[in-house]
Amino acid sequence: MVALLRAVIRRDLLLAWRRRADIATVVLFFVIVVSLFPLGVGPEPNLLRTIAPGIIWVAALLACMLSLQQMFASDHSDGALDQMLLAAAPLGMIVIARAFAHWLISGLPLVILSPVLAIQFDLAPELSPVLTLSLLLGTPILTLTGAIGAALTLGLRGGGMLLALLVLPLYVPVLILGAGAVDAASAGLGADAHLLLLAAQLVVTATFAPWAIAAALRISAE
Amino acid sequence: MLEAHDIEITRGDRRLFGNLSLALQPGTLLLVTGSNGSGKTSLLRALCGLLVPSAGAIRWHGENIRNLREEYWRHLVYIGHTNALKDELTATENLGVLCALSGVHPSAEQQRQALARFGLAGRERLPAKALSQGQRRRTALARLSLCSTLPLWILDEPFAALDSAAVSHMQAVVGRHLADGGMVVITTHQEVPIPAPTMTELNLDQGYR
Amino acid sequence: MNQPVLLAGGINVFKYAAPQTFYPLAGKMIPWFGWIAAAFCAAGLYVGFFVAPTDHQQGESYRIIFIHVPAAWMSMFIYVVMAFWAGVGLIFNTRLSHMMVSALVPTGAMFTFVALWTGALWGKPTWGTWWAWDARMTSELILLFLYFGFMALQAGIDDARRADRAGAVLALVGVVNIPIIYFSVKWWNTLHQGASVSLTSAPTMATTMLTGMLLMALAAWMYTIAAALHRVRSIILEREHGATWINEYAETKA
């Protein structure tokens, strides 16, 4: 089974590498959305410093959602998804492998980029690692939760907007805890509580989401 | 042994067929025929467990496949009318992933030989999007010669888009699998004789309704 | 929602799980629940407007809670009931449970909307603003989004069976997330009115106020049952339009 899962992850990474323009799109989207906010609210440094964590987090939410539309779509249309549903390993495990690969491709770049964006907003140097850590814990939750929506809306007309409608309300706790971690740290309260809750949510999501994704995939593939 | 008991399949509002029962013993070829829209693909998908029948049960060695799940699927190769190939991956990479999903891990040399037997020698490193329709089909079918240890093959229109050389090779591959005690379910529009110890034909237009 | 009804007197639940047995039964039950709802509503409104005393801080405007609080209760309760039927539908593969889920959603969304609307109406004279990012209002708003998401998903799927089962998975995912959303929003904004009706501490409000609110809550509950049964009947007719029992039923009624 390990060899099977390794083959699945390798496949997804290889595909992502050969379609690397798609990854660039997600990352660019993230950067552009973040860069638009100062133009909208004005260049006042104090204001920007206050809203920076929220902006970066909201942009990460949107970027993750954008990338999720493609998570199962092409596999659904070319029949590769059927082969995964009929694989010799439990579908839940395959889903975890795929979510991990998807996070490496579309979540991790956002995490890595966040310190640069923090500089753009003149975030205090000690807050930048908190932001990065919150994204590191939070983006896998976004991928796993979003994958449920992606699986449910597979092959539907208007799937992209529908996915947003289903998934964004579920992203609320991650947004609150993630952006809140940076706010708490800047207020001198310490981000530990927020980050621990985020970690707890990651554990809970990683336990239950694969079941829901697998069930949704079977329903949508019928 | 694969059995279906009184299964009924509905798609949307339409009942495709009902009260269909069949049993497949080792060494048997089941040929599913019928006009377009008679439910051939739906039946195959139901036998795989991709589609849940609205009534009845499908059993593998006496156990409902809904409970067996991957215990059943590790004995099964399903090749649908889509080839499940990724355009950006080479023929070898595609073949490797498809075999791995079935729990089979052939060496690079075995994969090369399998592709060569299906007339794809020298094309192993081409991305799938550079292959013709027939070559893509052959890449997908090459998996069969690597998965001969899996007893049950369910093939949806395997001969479509194949040239005569590839068709005769497929006949031989399926014939050998049956002679070794495998089970094969096939849908086809073409008259393709397959040397089979036992053969059952199931016409979805008549009977079995 | 109708589960206690079906279980009453030890009736075999599964017998009524078939749409053709449930359809006439639901038809008989609707007027009962409708009239009971109307009676509770009349009693609740009477108590709320004429018996309950004027609040010494908020004046008369507080009386909107007789609608607001029951609506907010029902909005959350209906989602839980929906998730329950969704789970039953997924496990036992009973069509009727899925129909029940679809029938409950519009009522749930309606109560959520009423709770938000009356909250805003109450907020204007009391807080001086229509909308405050108060924890409970925010979670209620997100709940409304969850209801809308569910309806949009079902509307986007043409195949009834897929719509049922995809909706059921979404309802279960939603019900697991609602407490997480609620507590995270509360964590985000701890500045809100403390819950004035709770089961653990003695209520701080006058007994007549509580009576009025409970009467209205019962009215909302009965109304929900009646509305859901009515909608289930329409869904059954829509889904089973080809089935012979419908024609036979129509003939015996005619």
Structural overview:
The complex is a heterotrimer of chains A (222), B (209) and C (254). Chain A is mainly alpha-helical. Helices cover 84% and strands 0% of the residues of chain A. Chain A has one domain. In chain A, α1 (2-18) crosses α2 (20-41), α3 packs antiparallel against α6 and α9 runs antiparallel to α10. The longest helix of chain A has 30 residues, at 91-120. Chain B has a 5-stranded parallel β-sheet with strand order 6-7-8-3-9, sandwiched between helices. Chain B has a 4-stranded antiparallel β-sheet with strand order 2-1-4-5. In chain B, a hairpin with a 2-residue loop joins β1 and β2. In chain B, α4 (91-101) crosses α5 and α5 (108-117) packs across α6 (133-146). The radius of gyration of chain B is 17 Å and the shape is globular. The two termini of chain B are 23 Å apart. The model of chain B has no long low-confidence stretch (mean pLDDT 90). Chain C is mainly α and 254 residues long. Chain C has a domain at 68-237. Chain C has 8 helices and no strands. Chain C has helices at residues 3-7, 19-51, 65-92, 95-127, 135-156, 160-188, 207-239, 244-253. Chain C is flat and about 65 Å long. Chains in contact: A-B, A-C, B-C. Chains A and B meet through α1, α4 and α5 of A and α4 of B.
CA-atom Rg of chain A in angstroms:
18 Å
Mean residue pLDDT of chain A? 93
Distance between the termini of chain A: 25 Å
Form type of chain B: globular
The greatest inter-chain interface is formed by: A-B, 27 and 30 residues
Which quaternary structure do these chains form?
A: heterotrimer
Which regions of chain A are unreliable across 5 or more consecutive residues at pLDDT < 50? none
Please tally the helical runs of chain A, counting DSSP H or I stretches of 4 or more residues. Answer: 10
- Write down how many β-strands of chain A occur, each being a DSSP E stretch of 2 or more residues: 0
Distance between the termini of chain B: 23 Å
